[in-house]
Specification:
Length: 361
């Protein structure tokens, strides 16, 4: 697989049926919600090539496993050698392609160590907003399934001994469909390609998972605080069932990794949840600004090298905060590509001003 992917012919009908099944009345409505052009959505649904990152994002929004539905046959016209033409600096949205993810090696080593031994263990990723929690979840899910030729030279990918046997489920609690217990449970089963019972309630869900989950499986819960604060249907009984499933009914093959701005126990307390589910997270990864060497590696990924003076200025102004690093690197690259004579730094400072609250004072 190269820079573009397309839906395999045999899955096109399944992909098209996922649109109404997920509550979208039209392709235009779906395109508007996901923030992509209508032409991109139409190309995806008709089996035409779309950008890799868009392919993954659309698949996840529709509850589809992108590795499963992607056409494995290479495109004759596909520009496999032009992956460098992707934007090297990603701002405003989570990083989904591992090539653009930098740093967090200590945290990644610990997290994968929890997942490569039996029984799988649970973990919480904690950090302020915009620090990269969602990007880290996507990295965990995608790195071991990404072709080596799509990664940076020497980028580590062999975190797991047998990555092909692992199953990953990404849950975004900012998606309002996850406010429904039935939709949440159906999403889990559909992603794992298990039969969805009727009705898809907790009892039937537990039966299906207990009987059919035999591979190492990781459920990634992003923005779980939203689920606890806004979705009353996800009550203590719901969370207790998930805990029971992981600890007693899946033979050690199930783990949860959640992302939040505070510890799970504190989060549960603040949202008045008493479920013991929030006590099972034995490891906590606290994300802080990138280390200087990590920030320099990100900056060095620019297709046009920055001057030493600009590198030092970017590191100082960003304080290693990933979002600010990405924004300032983007502005510097634009300046170099366009050959502007104006001072790009003024524009860079203007672009990061809305996020100055993230800076350490």
């Amino acid at each position: 697989m190269g820079r573009s992917l397309r839906v395999a012919v045999k899955y096109i009908q399944q992909v098209k049926s996922a649109l109404p099944r997920n509550g979208y009345p039209s392709q235009k409505a779906f395109a508007t919600e996901i923030g992509l052009s209508l032409s991109t959505v139409k190309n995806f649904l008709s089996g035409k090539p779309v950008d890799y990152i868009n392919f993954v994002e659309i698949s996840e929004k529709l509850g589809l496993e992108w590795q499963e539905i992607a056409d494995k046959e290479p495109e004759a016209q596909e520009n496999n050698n032009h992956i460098g033409q992707d934007s090297p600096f990603v701002t405003g949205s989570p990083i989904t392609h591992p090539r653009h993810f930098f740093g967090r090696q200590k945290e990644l080593k610990r997290l994968f160590n929890l997942l490569k031994r039996h029984p799988l263990q649970n973990a919480a990723i904690i950090g302020q907003r915009r620090i990269g929690k969602t990007s880290l979840l996507h990295y965990l899910k995608n790195i071991t399934a990404t072709p080596i030729e799509e990664l940076r030279p020497q980028q580590k990918y062999d975190w797991l001994t047998n990555p092909e046997i692992y199953r990953w489920v990404f849950v975004d609690f900012q998606d309002p469909r996850m406010s429904s217990k039935e939709r949440f449970l159906s999403h889990i089963l559909e992603t794992l390609r298990m039969n969805i019972p009727e009705p898809c309630d907790l009892d039937n869900f537990m039966d299906v998972m207990s009987d059919n989950l035999h591979n190492p499986t990781v459920i990634l819960l992003d923005e779980i605080g939203v689920g606890l604060q806004r979705y009353p249907e996800l009550d203590d009984e719901f969370w207790e069932s998930l805990r029971s499933l992981a600890t007693n009914h899946t033979g050690g093959n199930l783990a949860f990794i959640l992302a939040t701005h505070e510890s799970p126990i504190e989060l549960a307390h603040h949202t008045r949840h008493s479920s013991p589910f929030f006590n099972i997270f034995g490891y906590t990864a606290t994300l802080r600004p990138l280390k200087e060497e990590e920030a320099r590696e990100l900056i060095a990924s620019s297709p046009i090298p920055f001057t030493d003076d600009n590198v030092e200025w970017i590191i100082g102004q960003s304080q290693g905060i990933p979002l600010l690093l990405q924004i300032l690197c983007r502005e510097c690259l634009f300046h170099l590509e366009d050959g502007d004579t104006d001072d790009w730094r003024e524009e860079g400072l203007r672009q990061i001003e809305p996020f100055n609250h993230l800076l350490l004072r």
